[in-house]
Amino acid sequence: MTLVLRTLLFPLVIITARNAAKMTIMRPEMDVITEQIRTVPPGDRQAQMRYQKELYGLFAKYQCSPLSFL
């Protein structure tokens, strides 16, 4: 039973491990963008949207999904 379950879940484990490796590589760039987002005043929606687009572009650049860990 355990062997069957682990065999079925193995592809998900591999996908999660690959995504974790990509997230580790992109972490320095992501930290810079998130710090820029934190420094934006709360009322400046355009700047927040611009930094969010940069963050999404970063995920696309590394072909990584932020929800892949769930």
UniProtKB/TrEMBL annotation:
Keyword list (alphabetical) reads:
Membrane, Signal, Transmembrane, Transmembrane helix
Q: In which compartments does the protein localize? A: Membrane
Tell whether Nuclease is among the UniProt keywords.
Answer: no
Per the record, membrane topology reads: Multi-pass membrane protein
On whether Signal is a keyword of this UniProt record, the answer is: yes
Main subcellular localisation: membrane
Q: Which GO terms describe its biological process?
A: protein insertion into mitochondrial inner membrane from matrix
- Signal peptide positions (record): 1-20
What Gene Ontology molecular function terms does this protein carry? membrane insertase activity
Domain of life, per UniProt, equals Eukaryota
What GO cellular component entries does it have? mitochondrial inner membrane
Descriptive protein name: Uncharacterized protein
